């Protein structure tokens, strides 16, 4: 058992392939690794390991995709005037703030999750926001985040040693124990080729709105919180010697690959 290292393993997780001996250890490993235990139907399988079972799995996956896409196209809210008006309003307000906000059709995971609204009285966005802490395999979803709130204030309940929740603090202890100067906030640049993924580094002292200006947002912002002292595979735009430090939002067409991933998720 890879959890307790005491008993003989009886089970193997379909998702991460970890061995466990009991239900208790299964639950512990899911909690520790944020693993949902569901097999990844889109995981890469080399041609040498490809079997009839993999072929059958792919066939069933494509059938599920077809059913999901058909159900989304038939959804009554797709053609609802109120829904179209709301989305048009959000995109228009974002455009006036120099934000290229793009929405997905009904049925996509991010479209269902998104709770972003615009308050006409206050004239500001309340964003649906996702925070990902890769070094701890942790992910948190925030709703109703005002666009004038600084990123530093947004992160305080998570990585501040004093103001963070004790449970969250324990889970993110790598972050809470590190100086604030080591913390980097990154956001993936959309519309790039799949083999050329880059990230923008955001300024924690500035507001969420200021950081989103001039960028492409698919439904809602997803922020990656990383530590400079720990190795990660995220390449920040301009720090790769093979390319110039310029905005590449218009390059490529990775939106289609992102949408394909969303279809798989849904």
UniProtKB/TrEMBL annotation:
Function: Required for box C/D snoRNAs accumulation involved in snoRNA processing, snoRNA transport to the nucleolus and ribosome biogenesis.
CDD domains the UniProt entry points to: zf-HIT_BCD1 (cd23023)
Keywords: Isopeptide bond, Metal-binding, Phosphoprotein, Ribosome biogenesis, Ubl conjugation, Zinc, Zinc-finger
Region annotation (Disordered) ranges: 240-266
Gene (name only): Znhit6
Cross-referenced InterPro entries: BCD1, BCD1_alpha/beta, Znf_HIT
Family designation: Belongs to the BCD1 family.
Domain HIT-type: 1-35
Protein origin, superkingdom: Eukaryota
GO terms for biological process, alphabetical: box C/D snoRNP assembly; maturation of LSU-rRNA from tricistronic rRNA transcript (SSU-rRNA, 5.8S rRNA, LSU-rRNA); snoRNA localization
Subunit description: Interacts with FBL, SNU13, NOP58, NUFIP1, RUVBL1, RUVBL2 and TAF9. Interacts (via HIT-type zinc finger) with the RUVBL1/RUVBL2 complex in the presence of ADP.
GO molecular function: zinc ion binding
The protein, known as: Box C/D snoRNA protein 1
SUPFAM superfamilies, sorted: HIT/MYND zinc finger-like (SSF144232)
Species: Mesembrinibis cayennensis
GO cellular component, one term: nucleus
């Amino acid at each position: 058992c890879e959890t307790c290292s005491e008993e003989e393993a009886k089970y193997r997780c379909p998702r991460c392939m970890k061995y466990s001996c009991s239900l208790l250890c299964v639950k512990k490993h899911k909690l520790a690794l944020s693993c949902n235990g569901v097999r990844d139907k889109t995981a890469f399988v080399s041609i040498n390991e490809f079997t009839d079972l993999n072929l059958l799995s792919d066939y069933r996956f494509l059938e599920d995709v077809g059913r999901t896409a058909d159900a989304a196209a038939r959804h009554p809210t797709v053609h609802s005037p109120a829904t179209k008006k709301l989305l048009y309003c959000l995109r228009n307000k974002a455009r006036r703030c120099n934000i290229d906000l793009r929405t997905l059709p009904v049925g996509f995971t991010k479209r269902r999750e998104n709770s972003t609204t615009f308050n006409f009285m206050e004239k500001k966005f309340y964003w649906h926001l996702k925070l990902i802490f890769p070094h701890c395999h942790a992910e948190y979803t925030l709703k109703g985040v005002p666009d004038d709130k600084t990123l530093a204030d947004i992160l305080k309940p998570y990585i501040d040693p004093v103001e963070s929740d004790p449970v969250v603090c324990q889970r993110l202890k790598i972050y809470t124990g590190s100086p604030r100067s080591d913390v980097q906030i990154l956001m993936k640049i959309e519309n790039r080729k799949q083999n050329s993924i880059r990230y923008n580094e955001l300024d924690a002292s500035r507001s969420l709105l200021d950081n989103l200006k001039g960028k492409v947002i698919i439904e809602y912002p997803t922020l990656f919180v990383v530590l400079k002292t720990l190795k990660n595979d995220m390449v920040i735009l301009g720090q790769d010697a093979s390319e110039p430090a310029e905005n590449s939002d218009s390059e490529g067409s990775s939106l289609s690959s992102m949408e394909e991933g969303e279809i798989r998720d849904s």
